[in-house]
Design goal:
Largest sheet: 6 strands, mixed
Number of strands: 8
Number of helices: 5
Strand content: 5-15%
CATH architecture: Roll
């Protein structure tokens, strides 16, 4: 009897190792937090570079057929007008890798009714990350802020210089708006070390249009 149980356990382990997990094939996913940032602080290569990161991570889990956009605002600079994060992400609804609809539309997303938080704000793989700060450059309404809170529109990784507006994916912590998923507080600078010391790692939100 003991040998039979042992054989069954071995078979179960082997099956688990060969069968892909849901997170490896999530074609219906339309929202996630990035499992990793650029690795270069708040320098994401601008909006285009951030969008490319979203697209690459989505493709890795079978959701690359959609058009992905980073939830990031930019400031007005030179002849370029400000860009609002809320205007970049489509109409919704959006669901995570676990199949949970986190918001029905843009207004729902920016209301207290959204289903974001520690349980549902998961990565493209369906997991979580340790640091909870998310780059957004946005106010609670999803619009660009009056001053530059985007580390030069996501092109700077200067140490101790500039700042990025951050949200808390778990809706917990400190700052002016500690429970805000998109506008909790500012970073201490734009470098990777600055983001880490503030409580993040350069991660951000991605939505499919």
């Amino acid at each position: 009897m003991y040998k039979l149980l042992l054989v069954c356990l071995v078979m179960l382990v082997e099956l688990a190792s060969y069968h892909p997990s849901f997170s490896q094939n999530s074609p219906n996913t339309s929202f996630f937090i990035t499992s990793a940032g650029s690795g270069n602080g708040a320098n994401l290569g601008g909006l285009a570079g951030a969008d490319a990161i979203c697209q690459r991570l989505a493709a890795a889990v079978g959701a690359g057929s959609k058009m992905w956009r980073a939830y990031l605002s930019t400031s007005a600079m030179g002849n370029q007008p400000a860009v609002n994060a809320r205007d970049r992400i489509g109409r919704g609804p959006w669901q995570n890798a676990k199949g949970v609809v986190v918001a029905q539309n843009v207004d729902d997303l920016h209301s207290d009714n959204n289903k974001l938080g520690k349980e549902n704000s998961v990565t493209e793989k369906g997991g979580t990350i340790g640091p909870h700060d998310m780059l957004t450059g946005s106010g609670t309404d999803g619009r660009a802020l009056p001053s530059d809170k985007t580390c030069s529109n996501w092109t700077s990784s200067a140490d101790g210089t500039g700042t990025a507006r951050l949200g808390h994916y778990d809706k917990q912590g400190g700052g002016e708006n500690p429970n805000s998923w998109n506008s909790a507080h500012d970073s201490r600078g734009c470098s990777q070390a600055n983001l880490v010391s503030t409580g993040g790692a350069g991660a951000f939100y991605c939505f499919a249009q």
